[in-house]
């Protein structure tokens, strides 16, 4: 039994980091900005002639046919801008060109034909800011299996109502017995 528990904890130690990575960090594939968290990973690519959002769920492309959306860009020194997004084939939502500068904050909203709505956010980093670090791996499981050794409960003093103790009088329905 102890060997089985030890093998199970070793297997769990190998699987937990993989499970943590399944919901975690996906590096950009097209040189853009990755969304800041969530189940769905979205990459924002600002090109010279258009803005593209690449939408994936755990690395698998999500079809955007029939989807629509908007891109809101907020800057400290410029008025807020909103760009309309439409399907761009495969897993892309496409809109007009957007000039993104360091410090800009971007929020994207997309509505899919099946009724699902997605909100993601981005922050444009400056050239001197390091890229975000991938999240830390899951902590390792316990080094030893956690088990509490069986111990008998401590002995209790006899109860005054214990019929097995004949040396003490006990109460009955008719009164005290001798």
Can you offer a commentary on this structure?
Keywords: Signal. By secondary structure, the chain is mostly beta strands. It has one helix and eleven strands; from the N terminus they run αβββββββββββ. The protein has a domain at about 25-125: Immunoglobulin-like (Sandwich). The strands form two sheets. Strands 1, 2, 3, 4, 5, 6, 7, 8 and 9 form a nine-stranded antiparallel β-sheet that branches. Strands 10-11 form a two-stranded antiparallel ribbon. A hairpin with a 5-residue loop joins β1 (about 35) and β2 (about 40-45). It is elongated, with a radius of gyration of 32 Å. About 15% of the residues are buried.
Approximate shape? elongated
Q: Runs with pLDDT <50, length 5+? A: 4-22
The gyration radius over C-alpha positions equals 32 Å
CATH architecture of one domain: Sandwich
Number of strand elements? 11
* H/E topology pattern: HEEEEEEEEEEE
Strand-helix topology:
Elements: H1 2-22, E1 33-34, E2 40-46, E3 50-57, E4 60-61, E5 68-74, E6 81-87, E7 92-96, E8 105-111, E9 117-123, E10 171-172, E11 175-176
Antiparallel strand pairs: 1-2, 2-3, 3-4, 3-7, 5-6, 5-8, 6-7, 8-9, 10-11
Overview features:
mainly beta, Immunoglobulin-like, 9-stranded antiparallel β-sheet, two-stranded antiparallel sheet, 12% helix, 31% strand
Q: What does this entry show, briefly?
A:
This protein has 178 residues and is mainly beta. The chain has 1 helix and 11 strands, in the order αβββββββββββ. The longest helix has 21 residues.
């Amino acid at each position: 039994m102890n060997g089985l528990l030890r093998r199970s904890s070793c297997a769990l130690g190998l699987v937990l980091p993989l499970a943590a990575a399944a919901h975690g960090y996906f590096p950009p594939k097209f040189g853009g900005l990755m969304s800041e968290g969530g189940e769905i990973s979205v990459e924002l690519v600002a090109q010279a002639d258009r803005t593209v959002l690449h939408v994936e769920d755990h690395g698998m492309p999500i079809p955007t046919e029939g989807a629509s959306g908007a891109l809101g860009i907020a800057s400290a020194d410029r008025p807020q801008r909103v760009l309309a997004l439409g399907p761009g084939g495969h897993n892309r939502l496409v809109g007009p060109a957007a000039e993104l500068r360091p410090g800009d904050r971007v929020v994207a909203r997309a509505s899919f034909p099946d009724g699902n709505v997605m909100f993601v956010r981005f922050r444009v980093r400056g050239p001197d800011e390091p890229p975000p670090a991938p999240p830390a791996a899951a902590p390792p499981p316990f080094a030893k299996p956690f088990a509490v050794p069986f111990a008998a409960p401590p002995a209790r003093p006899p109860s005054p109502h214990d019929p097995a103790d004949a040396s003490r009088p006990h109460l009955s329905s008719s009164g005290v017995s001798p």
